[in-house]
Amino acid sequence: MGETSRDRQREATRQRLYEAALGIFRRDGFRDARVDDITLVAGVSRTAFYFHFPTKEDVLTELIRRTEAPIAVAVSELHPDAELPTVLETVTDWLTRTWQDERALIVDTMAIGLRVESATSPEANPNGLRAQLAARFERAVQNGVLHDAQRPAALADLYLLNCMSAMASWAQGEGRGLIEALQLANQLFLNGARRRLG
Amino acid sequence: MGETSRDRQREATRQRLYEAALGIFRRDGFRDARVDDITLVAGVSRTAFYFHFPTKEDVLTELIRRTEAPIAVAVSELHPDAELPTVLETVTDWLTRTWQDERALIVDTMAIGLRVESATSPEANPNGLRAQLAARFERAVQNGVLHDAQRPAALADLYLLNCMSAMASWAQGEGRGLIEALQLANQLFLNGARRRLG
DNA sequence: ATTATCTATAGATCTATAGATAATGC
DNA sequence: ATTATCTATAGATCTATAGATAATGC
Asked: What is the pTM (predicted TM-score) of this model?
């Protein structure tokens, strides 16, 4: 049941296709990217692409999975009693580092994330970012930091969707840094937009 | 410069294609919808579709424009001093009425909205929903109801993106009503998720 | 021998564009 | 006569699937 030569071969081909696809997406844009160009770079037949990725979108789905994984790890490694702002700041910092030089891919990736994130259950991956965040939010509810009116998992999803929206918006505008856009999302999520009077 | 017979003819064809496309999208899903099926229903040649809509996505872009317009009007007709929660409630009510029976179209439409909304400037349509909301937010800042740290237009965009995220999430989950999902977005936007202590 | 990985091929669908028709404005 | 609207057609691209090859496990 160890990794066979066939497994290594398959993964190597898949990885070449993955990298080639992202390269073509960056060059031509996701929509105008041709599978033929991808497979030309990867050095395989056209249909090999479809063997590994049912559609072009699945490449970006994998990009989401790969970039989310280290963020989930970073959150899981925070102190169990870390304050919620610290948790969100960690997410924000990682998202910024991951995406600020990938502007060309952000909008399409986030549009796909909008589907994937809400089409799959967080329990599908208990170590994933959504589950990690939901656990942190649950703890915050227990500690009285968050309202208990909403399911922690629902709050976690909405928070992540807010981050994705903010990133998509940033990628298309000519505003300030990505970090500022995400910090605004954090601030709104934690404190709302309303000014406290008195 | 009045409306000619040619204008009427073009608009009639465009309208037939628009309705036929939405019907096929509802039946087959946006991605699996075939342009041939659309033009069969509309009674025109295949390429007539592309004359009116460069891509299938443009049909949903038009759906966004058409459904946003009456909401923008409703907001503009509110009393100039209407409180912000009232404004957001108006948006939420309209979105709910518009979309709660169009579940099949929501996710794809919102994914496209994510691009369109952030790719175009609000000033492009001064009577549009984004501009209307930005004006309301600006007034709220002047009245001291909102923090003045963020540009009203940026807040308006983020608010609308939050609504779209909430709708996409609702459309795919089996949660409660759409209105509740949007009210959560409103509540978070206005008050944040953090519990006020003391 | 069986199966996973990849290739070759046929048919479906889309995209670009040349051409037909009828309305328009001079 | 010119132009806008729509059609017909050719070529590009995608999708489904049959087939080839080589690794695997018995």
From this structure: 0.94
